[in-house]
Amino acid sequence: MPALLPLLLPDPRDLRAERTPVAPVPCAARPGTPFRHLEGPCECFFGGRAPEFPPTAGAPA
């Protein structure tokens, strides 16, 4: 049974990689818009997460 335990538990290195923030990536499916993917590369063509508008600094002065 102890030999199977590493196969059933996730690798801690993988968990750290998931929490590492990445820089916003432009949406490849909507290149003319300001949409960005905050979680990583665009996966819109494969059913991935939807893009978001980049954060703004507030209302224009």
What does it look like?
It is a single chain. This protein is 20% helix and 7% strand. It is built from two helices and two strands. It starts with a helix and ends in a 24-residue tail after the last strand. The chain has helices at residues 5-8, 12-19, and strands at residues 25-26, 36-37. The chain has a two-stranded antiparallel ribbon with strand order 1-2. It is elongated. It is of the alpha+beta class and 61 residues long. The model has no long low-confidence stretch (mean pLDDT 76).
Short structural description:
The chain has 61 residues and is an alpha+beta fold. 20% of the residues lie in helices and 7% in strands. The protein has two helices and two strands.
Radius of gyration: 18 Å
Q: What's the count of strands?
A: 2
**SS class:** alpha+beta
How far apart the termini lie comes to 65 Å
Number of helices in the DSSP assignment: 2
The overall pLDDT average reads: 76
The main sheet orders its strands as: 1-2
Strand content: 5-15%
Question: How many strands, what sense, and barrel or not for the largest sheet?
Answer: 2 strands, antiparallel
Give the overall shape: elongated
| Topology as a string of helices (H) and strands (E) | HHEE
Low-confidence region ranges: none
